[in-house]
Amino acid sequence: MSDSGTVYLLLPSPRSTLFPLLIKYLNLDIKVSDRNDPEYKAAFPLNKAPAFKSKDGWKLHEAMAILQYIVSLKPESCKYKFFGNDERDKAKVWQWVSFANSDCTGIIANYLFRSHTEEEKKAASAGVDKAAKEFEDQLKQTKFLTGSEATLADIYCVGLFVWGLDKMFDKEFFSKYPSIHRWFRALCDSDPIMSPTLKGKDATK
Description:
By secondary structure, this protein is an alpha+beta fold. Helices cover 54% and strands 9% of the residues.
């Protein structure tokens, strides 16, 4: 299955960062643009990104919907198990993508951009720790979020940690959550979709 069109992104938001890597890996005929594109402004009055418009005018917004659609365009030769091995794996993939897309993005944004006083920072930090514990508890049990192989859940969720790297996900954070760090490094260095861009990425502070 193939398609051509344009995906409009808001970078470096973790709701957008996977798309250029995914499009490149799948070798899709999809242009990457942003919200300053005049065609975007005309087509998407809600001003929400990511958004996708095909050459025949079909439009789609919301990150999860666009992810599902773009993955559906993968060539038959693609062996990456985006949704794992069965329906339970697939359900877990969407659980983690949804958790990252809604709860976690908001929690991190609250810490980075909306907390100005020490009291606000402390409250925001507690929210970060609560979400991080969910990842750590799972990654103590399994190599990746849904099992022994990376899926769409992993390559989407790792964008959260790239987004906040050194700003909040520093060496101290990763020492507190070693399973997250092991998972983060594995994806950055070895995943065929992520590693061409993220190889060697790690906290420096």
